[in-house]
Amino acid sequence: MRLSRALLAMILGAAIAGCNNPGLRDLQPPGDGPDEFSVLPVKPLTQPKDYAFLPAPTPGGGNLTDPNPNADAVVALGGNASALNPNAAIPSSDAALVTASSRYGVPENARAVVEADDEAFRKRRGRWTGLRLFPVDRYQQVYERQSIDPYAETDAARRAGVETPSSPPNE
Question: What global pTM score does this model have?
Fold first, then answer.
């Protein structure tokens, strides 16, 4: 009887362990394997309408068949791909925003500082997240204090008289 209970407990534990699916929000590195997102398909080759007006080749420059996922995403969302050029002038519609946001100066290493601060925060807040019997959402654990309850915010806005769209029921 004891042996069958132990065997049943082991089978049940293996079955529960097989249900692990951390998804995209797992903060652990995936390992040393290849990155499938680094392989980009090229655009199909096209024939120019007139060979006399082709631009001169530039060593190290790009061509029309090189993939540019950032520009493709901007165009797909209805934006202007030329705005991604770091040497392009700031559009007049954004000049006031850029002036206001850079009034105290713009540090050159802002992204590195934010990344280091976020990594330290995740390490500090996620210290005990590895001590779980069952798989959990590590992202939710680490950023739980910073999350916003959408239902509470919707209720507060409705009490204040703000028109809000309908939302799924809170289950």
Answer: 0.38
